[in-house]
Design goal:
The complex is a heterodimer. Chain A is mainly alpha-helical. Chain A is 68% helix and 0% strand. Chain A is rod-shaped and about 130 Å long. Residues 115-122 of chain A have low confidence and may be disordered. Residues 98-113 of chain B have low confidence and may be disordered. Classes of the chains: A mainly alpha, B mainly alpha.
């Protein structure tokens, strides 16, 4: 019985050792090697430092950059600092109502170049020289 | 310019794996040349139809190379490859790409020798594959790794994440059930 069982085990091992032999012989190993390498090459990520992102990523990045720039320009136009020349325009309507500090500020503004978008005719005391404005300031200080 | 193949052929699996990880495609090709046939035998023995063996071998190798960073050398590269082959075969079966009926005729048509002997041998091998497909996967894998690939229990256990003693028990259960099925 034991011998018979051993014989069966041995026979089973022999059968198992032959399993798949034909499939292995049919396999074109070189073709398989090339096909595997080609598939790996396709799937392999690009080396670091190369510009190989998908095109959609570049499009999205460009759109995001444009949106940020647009928002920045809009915010600047809405909430940006008021040019000093605008103070002059306001002040020019009634210089007599200004305090000494406001006039001093206006005087300093005159020493800076005016922006182009302010017309000379709109600036009430643009024609005054710096000395004339200083004299005006002194008169207001009493 | 000398070919890289002879150099690659002299290197160990571990050296080739390291070379592949550095981007050497020839190293990957050499590993395929070394192990593809054993993998094909394992897959066919586990029930893969012959028509699908080529695709399954490729899929297994690609999957293995992509995951090669997880290979810690706990067993031979080939043994690790065979266990991945088992997973690929299972996935293929789950997707319905694997025929449930094992072809029996291929070995019957083998040339040479006594046609009657070949017929009997082919039928028996076909029944063995059928019997293997009825086994729990662990028993089937252990049996194939031991009886078909000739591996030691320690190696099988390391590859399948079990102990050598448990692998031995799985093997004996598999043999018992296969003998009951075949004889």
């Amino acid at each position: 019985m034991t011998h018979e069982s051993d014989f069966e085990d041995e026979r089973l091992r022999e059968l198992a050792a032959r399993l798949g032999t034909r499939a292995a012989e049919r396999l074109d190993v070189e073709h398989t090697a090339q096909a595997v390498v080609a598939r790996l090459r396709e799937a392999r990520p690009a080396p670091a430092g190369t510009w190989a992102f998908p095109r959609t990523v570049w499009f999205r990045a460009a759109a995001l950059l444009l949106a940020v720039l647009g928002a920045g320009l809009l915010a600047r136009s809405l909430f940006g600092p008021t040019p000093r020349a605008v103070v002059l325009l306001t002040a020019g309507e009634d210089v007599g109502d200004l305090t000494a500090d406001q006039l001093r500020q206006a005087l300093q503004g005159l020493e800076q170049p005016l922006t182009d978008d302010i017309g000379a005719s709109d600036a009430g005391f643009e024609t005054l020289s710096a000395d004339e404005l200083r004299a005006l300031l002194r008169s207001l200080e009493g | 310019m000398p070919s890289a193949e002879p150099v690659a052929a002299r290197q160990t699996d571990a050296a080739l794996i390291a070379a592949w990880q550095r981007g050497d495609e020839q190293a990957a090709a050499e590993l395929v040349r070394r192990h593809a046939r054993a993998l094909a035998r394992f897959l066919a023995g586990a029930g893969a139809p012959e028509a699908d063996v080529d695709d399954l071998v490729q899929e297994t190798l690609v999957r293995a190379f992509r995951a090669v960073g997880k290979f810690r050398g706990q067993c031979q590269f080939r043994t690790w490859l065979l266990t991945i082959g088992g997973n690929v075969l299972k996935d293929a079966a789950r997707r319905g790409k694997r025929a449930q009926v094992v072809p029996l005729g291929e070995d019957v048509r083998a040339t040479g020798g006594d046609p009657h002997e070949h017929t009997v041998a082919g039928e028996t091998e076909g029944r063995l594959v059928e019997g293997l497909m009825r086994l729990p996967r662990m028993q089937r894998d252990v049996f194939l790794l031991r009886a078909q690939q000739g591996l030691e229990y320690e190696e099988i256990a390391a590859a399948l994440g079990t102990t050598p003693g448990a692998a031995r028990v799985h093997y004996h259960h598999a043999v018992k059930r296969l003998k009951e099925y075949l004889l």
